[in-house]
Amino acid sequence: MVVKIVEMTREYAHIISTWTYDGEYSLYNHDEEFVNECMDDNHFAFTGADGKLLGYLCFGKEARIPTVEENVYDDNFLDIGLHIKPDLTGKKLGSTFLFKCMGYALEKFNTNRIRATIATFNKRAINLCIKSGFYSEQEVTHLKTKNKFVIVKRDV
Question: Is 12 inside a domain boundary?
Answer without folding.
Answer: yes
